[in-house]
Amino acid sequence: MFYYLLKYVFLGPVLRLVFRPRIEGLEHVPASGPAIVAGNHLSFSDHFLMPAILKRRITFLAKAEYFTGSGVKGRLTASFFRSAGQIPVDRSGKEAGQAAIREGLGVLSKGELLGIYPEGTRSHDGRLYKGKVGVAVMALRAGVPVVPCAMIGTFEAQPPGRLVPRIRPVTIRFGEPLDFSRYAGLENEKAVLRAVTDEIIYAILALSGQEYVDEYAAVVKERQTAQRKPGRGLPRAPLA
Question: What is the reported pTM?
Answer without folding.
Answer: 0.84
